[in-house]
């Protein structure tokens, strides 16, 4: 069984190998993890895709989205693999699933989950249009490209205009793919302390400076008289201000008896909400979940801010542990 320290080390070394284009070495290291998380499994699938091993890429993306059913980028990448395998109906289904998981949001930012990537809805619609074009559904492809054009946000989305021209000419739409460095990475606070550091530096041998010594070596510690400690200054009585205990500021946190009853979770990352319906979190915040919905969302109360709002169940998944961890 791989320990947590080994998982972090193998994971970090694997993505570094991938950044160096050593896909074989990256896969050898990552496959040392006996029970990989959905993020690590996703990374293995991406590296297999970069290496051209579509069958193994598909197998690992299957495991990744099974472990995390709300991973938008996982369904997106699996759709890319199925498209390259010629399984256009299955690819269309995965791209549609990824689009539905956005829940109307134009973009999802994976930075706080450990990956420098923003996945836009127009990019998913572009790939869905490519599948519809392959299936001979030109009207559906045109509709997807029209919606994708309205959602363009960055200069790279000019490929959507090119796809329109390609469709009108009766040619094959080029599939949109993620950059090669779109991988989940272990948190920096875990990898920063993995390498041993020599804080003392390399030892040096010094020669004796005493005339009576005929050898090179150390003289030893010398005793010096201790300097007197500085005199402590006290505040004069006439300067002291009496403290009225009745005017002390109240604590911003209400007594525990006023908190709602539910399951407690602890935030392990800061989280800034992208919408007004999501709850804001600081690291180590305690939240109480009072209601869990069947659609993957729940109602929670932040005990620090008293904010009552919604959060995605994916953030507290015992398999991914992205932002919150259970205290039960």
What's this, in brief?
By secondary structure, the protein is an alpha+beta fold. 36% of the residues lie in helices and 10% in strands.
Please tell me about this protein's structure.
The structure is a single chain. By secondary structure, the protein is an alpha+beta fold. The chain has helices at 4-19, 23-30, 38-50, 54-67, 72-84, 88-101, 121-134, 138-150, 159-168, 188-191, and strands at 107-109, 118-120, 263-267, 286-292, 297-302, 308-312, 324-326. The strands form 2 sheets. The protein has a 5-stranded antiparallel sheet with strand order 6-5-4-3-7, with no helix packed on it. Strands 1-2 form a two-stranded antiparallel ribbon. A hairpin with an 8-residue loop joins strand 1 (107-109) and strand 2. 28% of the residues are buried.
Characteristics:
alpha+beta, 5-stranded antiparallel β-sheet, two-stranded antiparallel ribbon, disordered C terminus
Question: Which helices and strands appear, and what pairs or packs with what?
Answer:
Elements: H1 4-19, H2 23-30, H3 38-50, H4 54-67, H5 72-84, H6 88-101, E1 107-109, E2 118-120, H7 121-134, H8 138-150, H9 159-168, H10 188-191, E3 263-267, E4 286-292, E5 297-302, E6 308-312, E7 324-326
Helix pairs in contact: 1-2, 2-3, 3-4, 4-5, 5-6, 6-7, 7-8, 8-9
Residue runs with pLDDT of under 50 for 5 or more positions:
232-257, 316-328
Name the structural class. Answer: alpha+beta
* Main beta-sheet strand count, sense and barrel state: 5 strands, antiparallel
Order of helices and strands, N to C? HHHHHHEEHHHHEEEEE
Task: Tell me the overall shape.
Answer: globular
- For the terminal residues, how far apart are their CA atoms? 24 Å
Q: Which percent bin holds the helix content?
A: 25-40%
Which strand order do you get reading across the main beta sheet? 6-5-4-3-7
Radius of gyration, in angstroms, nearest whole number? 29 Å
Beta-sheet strand percentage?
5-15%
Question: What's the number of helices?
Answer: 10
């Amino acid at each position: 069984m791989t320990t947590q320290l080994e998982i972090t080390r193998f994971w970090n070394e694997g993505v570094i190998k991938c950044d160096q284009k050593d896909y074989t070495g990256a896969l050898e290291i990552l496959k040392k993890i006996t029970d990989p998380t959905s993020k690590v499994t996703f990374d293995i699938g991406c590296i297999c895709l970069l290496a051209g091993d579509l069958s193994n890429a598909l197998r690992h993306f299957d495991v990744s989205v099974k472990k995390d059913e709300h991973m938008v980028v996982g369904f997106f990448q699996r759709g890319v693999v199925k498209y390259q395998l010629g399984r256009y109906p299955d690819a269309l289904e995965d791209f549609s699933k990824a689009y539905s998981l956005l829940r109307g949001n134009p973009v999802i930012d994976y930075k706080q989950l450990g990956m420098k990537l923003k996945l836009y809805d127009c990019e998913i619609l572009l790939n869905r249009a490519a599948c519809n074009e392959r299936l001979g559904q030109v009207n559906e492809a045109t509709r997807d490209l029209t919606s994708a054009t309205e959602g363009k946000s960055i200069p790279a989305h000019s490929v959507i205009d090119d796809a329109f021209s390609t469709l009108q000419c009766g040619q094959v739409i080029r599939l949109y793919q993620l950059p090669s460095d779109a991988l989940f990475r272990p948190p920096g606070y875990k990898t920063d302390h993995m390498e041993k550091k020599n804080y003392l530096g390399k030892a040096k041998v010094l020669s004796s400076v005493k005339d009576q010594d005929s050898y090179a070596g150390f003289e030893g510690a010398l005793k010096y008289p201790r300097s007197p400690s500085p005199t402590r200054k006290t505040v004069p009585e006439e300067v002291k201000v009496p403290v009225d205990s009745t005017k002390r500021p109240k604590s911003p946190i209400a007594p525990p008896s006023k908190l709602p009853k539910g399951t407690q979770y602890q935030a392990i990352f800061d989280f800034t909400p992208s919408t007004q319906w999501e709850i804001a979190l600081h690291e180590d915040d305690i939240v109480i979940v009072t209601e869990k919905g069947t659609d993957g969302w729940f109602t929670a109360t932040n005990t620090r801010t008293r904010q009552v709002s919604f959060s995605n169940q994916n953030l507290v998944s015992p398999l991914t542990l992205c932002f919150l961890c259970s205290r039960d």
